[in-house]
Amino acid sequence: MDFYQFARMLCRSYLRFVRCWKVEGEKNLPVEGPVIIAANHVSNLDPVVVGCAFDRKVSYLAKEELFQVPVLSWIIRHLGAFPVKRGTGDRGAIRAALDVLEKGDCFGIFPEGTRSKDGNLQQPKLGVAMLAAKTGAPVLPVALINTQRLLAPITVRVGQVIKPPWPAGSKVSKEELEAFAQQIMAEIKRLREK
């Protein structure tokens, strides 16, 4: 058992016994091949919840400030996180995400780019659509419910994969990327309100 599996086992126990979580639709995650898991973001707990909802390892980008805390840096690196300089179009972080997907693994992303302060869905950034356009990886929409509420039961609702409307590596306009990102957020919203 590696560190990721051990940490997931501990976190699943916490989620099951303390937060009484339930996961709906977890079988919608493809068992192999690249996939982008796109979820709403309202809590620091969200990456942990998404990582625990699936049996496949999920890698993430995390703000670079987290990697400046020695013990935390070691933990999140071993959980598959990569640092990102937010607001800069960090090419190294984008390359790390592309590498994960090109290896056929899962990459988790919060399309809003940051946590929602009020719990409402925010406008998506283009990152999720850009990764899908470059790699051809399908996007799995996920709605996280109550992760921001202390001790409230958590629900994770997993939708059906959404395939990008273009072949991998296609030249795609900003408008097309925006439309695809909006489609993903609309599905997350639908899952949240279900």
Automatic annotation (TrEMBL):
**Pfam families from the UniProt entry:** Acyltransferase
Q: Which CDD domains match?
A: LPLAT_AGPAT-like
Q: Which UniProt keywords apply?
A: Acyltransferase, Lipid biosynthesis, Lipid metabolism, Phospholipid biosynthesis, Phospholipid metabolism, Transferase
Name a single GO cellular component.
Answer: membrane
Query: Would you kindly state one Gene Ontology biological process term found in this protein's UniProt entry?
Result: phosphatidic acid biosynthetic process
The protein's GO terms of the molecular function aspect are: 1-acylglycerol-3-phosphate O-acyltransferase activity
Catalytic class of the enzyme: transferase
Q: Which residues form the Phospholipid/glycerol acyltransferase domain?
A: 35-147
Annotated InterPro entries: AGP_acyltrans, Plipid/glycerol_acylTrfase
Report which superkingdom the organism of origin falls in: Bacteria
Report whether Lipid biosynthesis shows up as a keyword of the record.
Answer: yes
Under which EC number(s) is this enzyme classified? 2.3.1.51
In which family does this protein belong, per the annotation? Answer: Belongs to the 1-acyl-sn-glycerol-3-phosphate acyltransferase family.
Entry domain remark: The HXXXXD motif is essential for acyltransferase activity and may constitute the binding site for the phosphate moiety of the glycerol-3-phosphate.
List the protein's name.
1-acyl-sn-glycerol-3-phosphate acyltransferase
The protein's organism comes out as Carboxydocella sporoproducens DSM 16521
